Amino acid sequence: MGIYDAxxxxxxxxxxxxxxxxxxxxDDIRKEYKLVTNQELNLFSDRDSLKLGGEWAVxxxxxxxxAVVFIPILSEGYFAxxxxxxxxxxxxxxxxxxxxxxxxxxxxYTDVDGFLEGTSADxxxxxxxxxxxxxxxxxxxxxxxSSAYRKEIAKIVQRIIKALKEAKVLIQSGHPKNGPxxxxxxxxxPGMLDLLAxxxxxxxxxxxxxxxxxxxxKIITEIQKETTEEVKIINTQPMSSSAKLLSARRLAGRxxxxxxxxxxxxxxxxxxxxxxxxxYRIILTRLPEEVLKNPEGKAAFCxxxxxxxxxxxxxxxxVEKAEILFNVYEGTAKISRELRPxxxxxxxxxxxxxxxxxxxxxxxxxxxxxxxxxx
Length: 375
Known about the structure:
With 375 residues, the chain is mainly α. Helix content is 68%, strand content 4%. The protein has helices spanning 12-17, 21-37, 56-66, 76-80, 82-98, 123-129, 147-172, 192-236, 241-293, 295-332, 340-355, 357-369, and strands spanning 6-9, 43-44, 69-74, 107-108, 134-135. It is globular and about 85 Å long.
C-alpha cells in the first residue's frame, strides 16, 4: 500500500474532454513542489498511482486513507459521481477529525449551481463551499506557461506545504486520528450543523433504495407463489426430463431480472449506509460538547435521529423478508442447474441485506448512548 501526501479527485470524462488538462494540474503541482522544496510530492491521481491489473477500488481506498491533502476538481459532473462524492465525504471527515481546515483545497473548474453562494440543495456542495477554494473557471483556458496559471499552481503548493506541516505536528504530538476533535477557529470551517445536514441527506437516500428493493421483493414473491404448483409438478409428476428442464428454464427466466435488480440495489443500499456510517460515528463522538454549545445542535441531531430510527425500522423489516425469501429459494435451487446461477445472484443480494442488520442495531445503540433526550 502506497503512502501519499495528496489525493487529486476528478471526473475522468472531464479530463478526457479537456484533453488531460485536469491531470496536467497534478503534474504541475508535483513539479512546483519539487522546485520549492527539493522533495518529491507523492500525489495520488489514479492515472499514475494504479498498478496495471491491480484492484483499482482497493488502491483508491488506500490512497484515500493515507493521503493528507485532498484536491477535488469540482464541476456539476463531480457531484453527480458517486465515487467522487465518496472521496470528498471521506476527506471532509478526515479534516474535521484532525481539526485542520486546509487539508481540503477545492478547485472550482466549471460552474456548480449554488457553490459560490452556498445555496445549493445538495448539502455536499454547500459543505465543500465552506473550504477555501480556488476559482479555475477562467484559468482552464490559460496556457500552462502563463504567469496567471503558474501563480495559482504556486499558491496551491504553498497551501499543501502548510497543510502537511500542520498535519505532521499534530500526528507527532500524539493527536489521535479518530479521537476528540479540536474546535475549529476559522469561521468558514464546516461544523456540527453542516455535518448533520449532510448525513441527514445521506440517510434520506437509503429509504428510496429500500422502497425499490421492496418492489422487486414483491415481484419475486409473486413469482414464487405462481410457480409453487409448477415446482411441485416438476418434482412429483411423471414428466419427461426435457419438459422439466423447460419448466426450470421458464422459472429461471422470470427470476433473472428481479434477482439482478435486488443484487444491484442491495449493493447500493450497503454503500449508502456504510458511507453514512463513518460520518455518523464522528458526529456522535463530538455531539455532547457541540449540543451544549449550540442549542440548534440538539434539534438537528433529534431530526437526524428520527430519520435514522425510521430507516432502522424499515431496514429490520427488509431483513426479515430477505431471510424468508432466502430460505424459500434455498430448496428451489436444487431443482435444476438452470436455476442455480439465478438463485445464487438473488441470494447474494439477500445476504447483503441481511448483513446490514448489525449496522442498524449499532445505530440504535449509538443514539441511546449519546444521552440526548429527544422526547
